[in-house]
Design brief:
12% strand, 11 helices, elongated, mainly alpha, 413 residues, 49% helix
Length: 413
């Protein structure tokens, strides 16, 4: 069964899908709406008096242009950018000749999934990577967003101003948002400059500074839109270049096609037409569907809000730890028996291990970990001292120790 990440924010029954940082959207709305309100109140109203009918058209254009900007912003932020549904299980490994395997201490080897696979697109070999989080091989040009925690088709970037990833399904709206914001900045700047020009040509005529003092809102909006136009205007030019070469921001920043052919480049006009004018594919995730109680691959589970500690989980972990410690102690005791058979290994080590083992098996013992650590350090200091030709921490008998055992060269013969 396919799953999607729960970091998204849903509104209107799944009709609007926002990113985890949707709060930044309110800052963007404030930065767009507040200058337009100042323009309409303190600049547009005076232009209406100066130009009568044309002044009304100026206000209408400002309101319509702002509505277009907000519409593109909502479509960009509240739409599925192209989330690839994640798998409940990893794909089955392919048993190919020469493929690596992991035995993991078991009798049957476990085949490892290859990290990449090769696909041929327009005669060019493209590597697709395996995503450990989504447990799937990402489609070409797909990448995993670390903020949204989702794999997104044709991932461009995660935009903090709209609080959403920019991908295959909302990239045209994002470009429309950037372009319309640039045009709105140019329009407000030109209308404020017109207002200053009218004051300078009035009766009596005024200098530039006198005109700015008489209409401070015009001076503020000219400075504000001048700075904003450099930002959104630069983004517009940059994305025009990306569309003409059929690249994404992610690919361009990583110099992915700097020294090799871009298999997705079909020419400037065709690239722009395909990106902006082609039909937007439907979402691969039904965000309005009901989630079943039991998810395939995960069994029956639920989330509980608790203020204390889950004792059941702690008991399971403690029992598993006990089993692991018993296994290690049995192995160490058996190793001590083997070494003692070779030549008089100190019995203190074996007795300490057996004592720790009995304490661990005793249900009345509460703190078994401290006892084991103490005995372990005693055993390690007594049996793992560095000798000639042997490294510290190596539990295999050194050649000097083996020379004392029974044999043609040993002293115990």
């Amino acid at each position: 069964m396919l799953l999607c990440c729960i970091l998204q924010r849903f509104c209107l029954g799944g009709r609007l899908i926002f990113g985890p940082d949707v709060r930044s959207l309110f800052l963007t709305l404030f930065l767009i709406i507040s200058p337009v309100v100042v323009f309409c109140l303190f600049v547009g109203s005076y232009l209406m008096q100066d130009f009568s009918h044309s002044g009304v058209a100026i206000l209408v254009v400002a309101v319509v242009q702002t509505s277009i900007v907000l519409s593109f912003l909502l479509l960009t932020s509240g739409r599925d950018p192209g989330i690839v549904p994640r798998n409940a299980h990893p794909p089955e490994p392919e048993d190919e000749p020469g493929s690596s395997s992991d035995w993991s201490g078991s009798m049957t080897p476990k085949l490892r999934l290859p990290r990449t696979k090769d696909l041929t697109i327009n005669g060019v070999v493209v590597k697709v990577k395996y995503c450990d989080t989504c447990m799937l091989y990402r489609p070409p040009r797909c990448s995993h967003c670390s903020i949204c925690n989702n794999c997104v088709e044709r991932f461009d970037h995660h935009c903090p101003w709209v609080g959403q990833c920019i991908g295959r399904r909302n990239y045209p709206h994002f470009f429309g948002f950037v372009l319309s914001t640039t045009l709105l900045c140019f329009f407000v700047f030109s209308m404020c400059a017109l207002r200053i020009k009218r004051l300078m040509d009035g009766h009596p005529p005024l200098t530039v500074w006198r005109a700015l003092q008489k209409s401070p809102a015009s001076g503020f909006l000219m400075a504000y839109t001048f700075l904003a136009s450099w930002f959104v205007g630069g983004l517009t030019v940059f994305h025009l270049y990306l569309m003409s070469t059929n690249q994404t921001t992610y690919e361009n920043f990583r110099y992915r096609y700097e020294k090799r052919i871009n298999p997705f480049n079909e020419g400037m006009l065709r690239n722009v037409w395909k990106i902006l004018c082609s039909a937007i594919p439907s979402s691969k995730v039904n965000f309005r569907a009901k989630v079943p109680k039991e998810v395939a691959g995960f069994g029956s589970f639920s989330y509980h809000k608790t203020t204390g500690v889950n004792m059941d989980t702690m008991d399971l972990k403690r029992e598993k730890y006990n089993c692991d410690m018993r296994h290690d102690l049995q192995w160490m005791a058996k190793a001590a028996d083997n070494v003692e058979d070779i030549h008089g290994f100190p019995s203190k080590f074996k007795e300490s291990i057996e004592g720790s083992k009995s304490k661990l098996e005793d249900p009345s013992s509460e703190d078994f970990s401290k006892s084991f650590e103490h005995e372990y350090h005693i055993a390690k200091n007594s049996a793992a001292q560095p000798r000639h030709g042997r490294q510290s921490g190596n539990w295999h008998p050194s050649p000097e120790l083996l020379s004392f055992g029974p044999g043609p060269q040993g002293l115990g013969q």
